[in-house]
Specification:
Low-confidence stretches of chain B: none
Radius of gyration of chain B: 27 Å
Largest interface: A-B, 48 and 46 residues
Number of strands of chain A: 17
Number of strands of chain B: 0
CATH superfamily of the largest domain in chain A: P-loop containing nucleotide triphosphate hydrolases
CATH topology of the largest domain in chain A: Rossmann fold
Structural class of chain B: mainly alpha
Number of helices of chain A: 39
CATH architecture of the largest domain in chain A: 3-Layer(aba) Sandwich
Distance between the termini of chain B: 37 Å
Helix content of chain B: over 70%
Helix content of chain A: 55-70%
Oligomer: heterodimer
Structural class of chain A: alpha/beta
Shape of chain A: extended
Chain lengths: ~800, ~120
């Protein structure tokens, strides 16, 4: 390969040109040029300067002009990209050629990187991708002489393009297996690399295209843009304008990513003959306002190429309007005056964020506002764009035909994939400047992954943006670089979930049986079945398509079913508070489903809806499932199959991070009979399930959807004694904390408690009554009689 | 490098200089809202019109006169601004032409000016 060519000459010349000597020459030339021009200009109007001076000025002006124009030429060629030519390197820009020449000279790819990171954008990119200078040096310790191969690879990737910039070089260099292997070892998702590279490359190329006159071509309407619109006193009071100055400032910090389709749809809807009003519909946090702001920006800068160019996009302060006119009597004239201003101005697009505040007929402040608004929606001189959530759209718009027929709808979806990552890169950029922190790429990809799993009450990209803001605020003085671990901590606090469960999940699962036995007495087969079923369920690779595990606990009352669920919540999710318990006997009536899932997002959200949103990672316990309404029981089928439920008002409840347990006392008598007949546990389990199917207590398709059907047996006397021992330990701890005294029970008392607490009907529940009524009373009597001092021992040897 | 200088000076460089001049003129057109003023030349000033109904003939005549006055004011102000814009534009065109001519002549001037200077010294 030939390493010559014009580009190479230019780069080699520039190495000298940028030295001090040439800098001094340039400075001298510039000063000479200015002085000569001043002398000549003065000579044109006065005779102050003699002709000899003019002559010298002209003599010096020539070379000065030549040097300055040559410098302009140098600036020009270093700013532009390749120009094409006979040699391969003629297609590259100067930075690339310099880097490639350094690589060729040393033979070591590290030299290439050293040159490339002189570009601040490249340096920032590499640092974000966990490739600081030290790492690159370690990755390329020795020469590989691969410069020619690299140039060939770059030329092939660029096809016939005559302009290959430094980011093309970086893209090919990053594809090196040395680097991709390093990323894999560091658990950096490779798929995020390309999006990040494209993001930086696009910004770099856009910046390269800017010239000092670029801003002059921006059409902001000029100083006469409002000379044809009337005065809008009331509108000025309750709205603010998204004008060209705002648009120009916004373009540099918030370029539109992934929303072009929504913006175009919005414009199309506004231009429709019968549709000058549009609703932006989407989940909270998807960025409906961003779509409007982008439209406003294009309108202000005359970029839509439609009659909307140059119109005023005004944002209404709904709460200010409703505060100024809280009653319908005042609101009517207020609306009339506001819309008179809009019609008089003739060029207003009114944006109403949270338009449900006006459309709702509830609340004294918004009474009849919806009806008043509807009167003006049909006026062709009025253009309204409203923003509303999907749930509120169903509740307040679709239920009012008079309103819904006057609005076109543009659905704004949450950004995903590379679009979402690029949006977060932009956000990270601004946050980093404010907090003086730096986000590595795995922090951002981790934020996306964890937010998708654990934060369900808000949509992307707002929920990820909040995480970024929180992570930056929490960054300590000594730790300004934010990686995946710091982001996980932020999500744990935000979602009240133990993410480390995933990371330590293997340990938790392998020790689950032993841990459960410390809390649940007996039920060896049941605990083993549960642990094994959970292991099998979690061994599957798909996370997020079903609950973590689903189980049906069958057995008499008081044998440890609920205790197992509590223990599971503590061991798996870190706390017993991470258990949602629903007594299904409360949902036995016809309105059971409504009580469970709710009918309104705010006034009647439903018990299960509220609970799972607050605790997305929890044990969900449906107690006594057989008592629930049949519609509710059928709902379980969808939950067990898909891990998701959809409410009446469109809210999707996600159970994929939860363990679902249903309990039932059905077949308890049959269990006791078979236990007395000394039927084996395995046989009893099979017989019980067959019986429940035969009796139509649970249909087979219902039972088959559970990961495990676990049968709990009645407790034996020996097991009750173990339960007594557990409860005594807890009581001793309580007495120690509250009174500071040690409680000691004789073996006679323990045996007596077990004997009194043993009830084949009520299981261990009978023991709870005995502990309270007999033992605690005995303890109380002795405390009052003896008044033991703190640190002493209280011995109970009779009840 | 020298040949590259000439290629760039009369190629890309001249194109960019021309683009800068055009951008400056565009700025003037946008700044003075020429397009907007042209489209609304005869519109009432600040859309200030009286819209009334069921008036007597005399009152209707008064309203018509006032509305006409608003249009006349609008026309006068807009016309003056358009004329001002044209004046500035003409100046800018002349200035741009001079700059572009100097650009084109720069390599030649770099050679010719010293000769003129020498001539001045010995005349």
């Amino acid at each position: 390969m030939k390493w010559g060519g014009q580009r190479t000459e230019e780069v080699q010349f520039l190495l000298i040109y940028r030295g001090l000597v040439f800098a001094a020459i340039r400075l001298f030339a510039l000063v000479t040029l200015l002085i000569s021009l001043i002398v000549l200009a003065a000579s044109a109007v006065t005779d102050f300067f003699p002709s000899t001076l003019q002559g010298y000025a002209l003599i010096l002006l020539g070379p000065a002009l030549a040097i300055c124009s040559f410098h302009v030429y140098i600036i020009g060629i270093t700013a532009e990209g390749g120009r094409g030519g006979s040699q391969p390197l003629d297609r590259f820009d100067h930075e690339s050629v310099r880097a490639l020449l350094a690589y060729k000279k040393s033979g070591n790819r590290y030299a290439l990187w050293l040159e490339l990171i002189k570009n601040p954008a490249v340096e920032g990119l590499l640092f974000r991708l966990r490739l600081p200078q030290q790492t690159l040096k370690a990755l390329y310790p020795s020469p590989d002489n691969g410069a020619e191969g690299l140039v060939a690879a770059i030329c092939e990737r660029a096809h016939r393009s005559t302009q290959i910039d430094v980011f093309e070089v970086v893209a090919v260099a990053l594809a090196d297996p040395t680097i991709t292997n390093y990323w894999q070892r560091s658990h950096i998702p490779i798929e995020s690399i390309e999006a990040t590279l494209n993001f930086y490359g696009a910004r770099y190329r856009a910046a390269k295209k800017l010239r000092f006159w670029t801003a002059w071509t921006r059409n902001d309407g000029g100083f006469a843009k409002l000379w044809s619109t009337s005065y809008t006193v009331l509108l000025d009071r309750f709205t603010y304008v998204l004008d060209s100055a705002w648009a120009a400032g916004r373009a540099s910090v918030a370029p539109l990513i992934g929303r072009n389709e929504a913006v175009e749809s919005l414009l199309v809807e506004l231009r429709k003959q019968n549709g000058q009003n549009v609703l932006l519909v989407g989940d909270p946090g998807v960025g409906r306002s961003e779509v409007l702001y982008e439209l406003a920006s294009r309108v202000a800068l005359h970029k839509t190429e439609t009659p909307f160019d140059g119109m005023q996009v005004r944002v209404l302060d709904v709460t200010a309007v409703l505060s100024a006119a809280p009653s319908p009597e005042k609101l009517g004239p207020m609306f009339q005056a506001l819309f008179a201003d809009i019609v008089g101005a003739g060029n207003v697009i009114l944006f109403i964020p949270r338009i449900e505040l006006l459309l709702s007929n509830e609340g004294a402040g918004s009474a009849a506002a919806g009806n008043l608004l509807a009167q003006y929606l049909g006026d062709p001189r009025v253009h309204i764009v409203g923003s509303i959530s999907s749930v509120d759209h169903v509740t307040f718009v679709r239920s009012q035909p008079a309103v819904s027929e006057k609005f076109g709808v543009v659905r704004v979806a949450a950004p995903v994939g590379n679009d979402l990552l690029q949006i977060l890169l932009i956000k990270a950029w601004s946050v980093e400047a404010r907090y003086q922190v730096f986000f590595l790429i795995d922090a951002l990809t981790h934020a996306i992954e964890l937010a998708d799993r654990y934060i369900k009450d808000e949509a992307s990209p707002t929920r990820e943006m909040r995480l970024i803001e929180e992570a930056a605020a929490k960054a300590t003085a000594g730790n300004r670089v934010i990686a995946a671990g710091e982001m996980a901590t932020v999500v744990e606090e935000r979602a009240q979930v133990r993410i480390r469960v995933d990371e330590n999940e293997q340990e938790a699962l392998l020790n689950l049986e032993a841990e459960l036995h410390q809390r649940v007495i007996g039920q060896n087969r049941a605990i083993k079945l549960l642990s094994d079923a959970l292991l099998r369920a979690r061994a599957g690779l798909s996370k997020g398509s079903k609950p973590i595990g689903t189980f049906l606990f069958l057995g008499p009352t008081g044998v440890g079913k609920t205790e197992t669920a509590k223990a599971l919540a503590h061991i798996y999710f870190g706390s017993e508070d991470q258990m949602i318990r629903l007594d299904m006997s409360e949902y036995a009536t016809e309105d059971g489903l409504e009580k469970l899932l709710g009918t309104h997002p705010t006034t009647q959200p439903g018990a299960l809806t509220v609970a799972i949103q607050q605790h997305p990672s929890a044990v969900v316990l449906f107690d006594e499932i057989e008592k629930a309404n049949s519609v509710v029981r059928n709902l379980m089928l969808q939950l067990l199959d898909e891990g998701r439920l959809t409410t009446n008002f469109g809210k999707v409840l996600d159970f994929t991070n939860s363990i679902v347990i249903a309990t039932s006392n059905a077949g308890s008598d049959y269990i006791k009979e078979q236990v007395e007949k000394k039927v084996s546990a395995a046989a009893l389990e099979k017989q019980l399930i067959d019986r429940l199917i035969t009796e139509r207590t649970f249909p087979p398709e219902y039972l088959n959807r559970f990961d495990g059907v676990v049968v709990y047996l009645p407790l034996t006397l020996a097991e009750i004694q173990q339960v007594v021992a557990l409860q005594v330990v807890a009581l001793q701890q309580l007495v120690r904390e509250q009174k500071g005294i040690e409680l000691s029970l004789s073996q006679k008392v323990v045996n007596e408690l077990a004997k009194r607490g043993y009830d084949p009907v009520f299981g261990a529940r009978a023991l709870q009554r005995v502990m309270k009524n007999d033992l605690e009373t005995a303890i109380a009597r002795q405390i009052i009689a003896e008044k033991p001092a703190p640190g002493s021992t209280l011995v109970i040897d009779s009840l | 490098m020298i040949s590259g200088y000439f290629v760039w000076w009369y190629g890309t460089g001249l194109t960019e200089a021309y683009a800068a001049a055009m951008a400056a003129m565009t700025r003037i057109v946008y700044l003075f809202s020429v397009s907007q003023l042209g489209k609304t030349l005869f519109d009432p000033w600040k859309n200030d019109v009286i819209r009334a109904h069921n008036l007597s003939l005399a009152d209707q005549l008064k309203v018509w006169q006032l509305n006409l006055a608003s249009r006349i004011v609008g026309f006068l102000v807009r016309s003056l601004v358009i004329l001002a814009a044209l004046f500035v534009l003409v100046l800018l065109i002349l200035l741009s032409a001079v700059i572009l001519l100097i650009w084109i002549a720069t390599p030649l001037l770099a050679l010719v000016l010293p000769l003129i200077g020498v001539t001045r010294l010995f005349v």
